[in-house]
C-alpha cells in the first residue's frame, strides 16, 4: 500500500491511505496569558466590589470613633467620682485624673467643675468632623455639655 500525504486541517498531523486520513495526534495550541477583555472584566468586577465595600467600611469606622468617645466619657465620669470622693471637689482639669488615659484620637475637655456638686464635659474624635459627645453630672450645666440633655447620660450628635 502506497502512503500518500494529504493536507489535513490546521493542527492535525497524520498519514493518509488513499482518501482516508488517519489521525495520529492533535497539536495543542499554546495560549499564554490573558486577553485584554478578560483583564478588563476582572478590573470592572474589582471596581464594583470596591464601590460596595468602601462606603460600608466608612460608616463602621465612624461608629467605632463615636463608641470610643462615649466609652472614654463614661470612664472619665467614674474617675471624676473617684477624684471627688478623695478630694471633696471635682477636678477642673483632666490632667488631674492621673488614672485616666483617653483613647487614641479622642479629645475630652472638662468644661465645668463646681465645688463637689457637679461637672460637665465634652469629647470628640480626630477622625470625626462635626460630631461631638457631651456628659454632665450633678449640678453641672447641660449648656456646657452640648449635646447632652440628661444628667449622667452620654449623648452624641
Report what the structure shows.
The protein is an alpha+beta fold. It has one domain. The chain has one helix spanning 36-87, and strands at residues 12-17, 20-26, 106-114, 118-125, 133-138, 155-156. The strands form 2 sheets. A 4-stranded antiparallel beta sheet has the order 3-4-5-6, with helices on one face. Strand 1 (12-17) and strand 2 (20-26) form a beta hairpin. The model has no long low-confidence stretch (mean pLDDT 87).
TL;DR?
This protein has one domain. The chain contains one helix and six strands.
- How do the strands of the widest beta sheet line up side by side? 3-4-5-6
Mean pLDDT: 87
Number of helices: 1
Q: Rough shape?
A: rod-shaped
From the N-terminal CA to the C-terminal CA, the straight-line distance is: 96 Å
Helix content: 25-40%
The main sheet comes to:
4 strands, antiparallel
Count of domain modules: 1
- In terms of quaternary structure, the protein is single chain
What is the string of SSEs from the N terminus onward?
A: EEHEEEE
Strand content: 15-25%
Q: How many strands appear in the DSSP assignment?
A: 6
Low confidence ranges: none
* Secondary-structure-derived class: alpha+beta
Radius of gyration: 37 Å
Topology readout:
Blueprint: E1 12-17, E2 20-26, H1 36-87, E3 106-114, E4 118-125, E5 133-138, E6 155-156
Antiparallel strand pairs: 1-2, 3-4, 4-5, 5-6
